[in-house]
Design a protein that fits this description.
Layout (H helix, E strand, L loop, with lengths): L1 H20 L4 E7 L2 E6 L6 E6 L2 E5 L6 H11 L4 E5 L5 H4 L11 E5 H8 L1 H11 L6 H5 L7 E3 L3 E5 L2 E9 L6 E6 L4 E3 L14 E2 L2 E2 L3 H13 L6 E3 L12 H22 L4 H7 L15 H14 L3
Parallel strand pairs: 4-5, 5-6, 6-7, 11-14
Antiparallel strand pairs: 1-2, 2-3, 3-4, 8-9, 9-10, 10-11, 12-13
The structure holds zinc ion.
């Protein structure tokens, strides 16, 4: 028995580094003509790229997976990557600019993101660079590249015959999420303001949790109120629902409202945060969502934000 246990342990130790080294696979699909979606098969961050006659624009890049995005681009075109845009400063969306360095793209981000990338995000990058965790190998090889342009309000980029309407949406999932609307393609890139079939993640960098549910709901309301001719809203995590339109945003908003109400009921019944974490039942309409472990930080957030409001 003893012997078997030791062998089992050895097995685990030998296998773990190999498993941790394998980064999630990015699966490519087409969103529209010359626009491609890279879905993270592990449920982590997605990426989008546009190929135009003037070059390529990439939206969101994780240092652990952006090499796969670059490889997909290189297979499809010999055009250079000219622009990078990140939805927000979290590591899974804004650390991978380094992979595109050969093409010298211009990197655009919202002002708050740029600030985060100089402060806590840079700290986290350094920590991961110095850690021995095999999963952090991409951090050891790469560098954190900061934005070249930090925008402070709605900005339009005309590039390759397309119009990229970049809007810093304010504080919601993170300290400063931006969206990109491309009217010619009837697409809107939502970053982590939209997650599909998956419990949304809390904005985090270097251990600071900064999502704001009220802000998040307000942003979704703002985007819906624009009544844009969008066929597909592209999520930051989870599969893309082609041509589902505003229904995806409605579902995301409903998720927050329903979940917050459930937590509010428990707060009103005098439950503590620990009890809520233990006893919370996911409403049936969201029971099929993956990554329930991400809910843990949301109980905390809902609870604290409800308490703050003096519920
Ligand atoms: Zn994310």
């Amino acid at each position: 028995m003893q012997r078997l246990n030791i062998r089992a342990l050895v097995f685990v130790f030998v296998l773990t580094p190999t498993l941790a080294l394998a980064q999630a696979k990015m699966t490519m699909s087409k969103l529209a003509g010359d626009v491609y979606f890279m879905q993270n098969s592990g449920g982590s961050s997605n990426s989008v790229f546009f190929i135009t006659g003037e070059g390529v624009l990439v939206f969101d890049f994780d240092i652990r997976t952006a090499d796969q995005t670059l490889a997909a681009i290189r297979k499809l075109t010999d055009k250079k990557v000219r622009y990078l845009i990140s939805s927000h400063s979290a590591g899974d969306h804004a650390t991978g600019a380094w992979h595109f360095r050969e093409d010298k793209p211009v990197y655009i981000a919202a002002k708050n993101q740029a600030k985060d990338l100089f402060m806590q995000e840079a700290k986290e990058f350094e920590e991961r660079k110095n850690s021995k965790d095999p999963g952090n190998e991409p951090y050891r090889k790469g560098e954190l590249v900061r934005p070249d342009i930090a925008i402070d309000g709605p900005t339009t980029l005309y590039f390759g015959g397309l119009t990229f309407q970049i809007t810093p949406e304010g504080r919601g999932h993170s300290t400063g999420d931006l969206t990109v609307f491309v009217p010619q393609k009837r697409l809107m890139l939502m970053g982590d303001l939209l997650d599909t079939e998956i419990h949304p993640g809390q904005g985090e960098s270097a251990g600071v949790w900064y999502s704001n549910v009220n802000g998040w709901v307000a942003i979704l309301d703002n985007v819906m109120a624009r009544n844009l001719p969008v066929e597909t809203y592209v999520p930051g995590h989870g599969p893309v629902h082609m041509a589902r339109g505003v229904k995806d945003l409605e579902e995301q908003k409903r998720y927050f409202v329903v979940m917050r109400d459930e937590v509010a009921k428990m707060v009103a019944a005098g439950k503590t945060l620990e009890q809520i974490e233990k006893e919370f039942k996911i409403p049936p309409e969201f029971a099929n969502y993956t990554r329930p472990e991400r809910l843990k930080n949301f109980y905390k957030l809902f609870y604290n934000q409800l308490i703050e409001k003096g519920y």
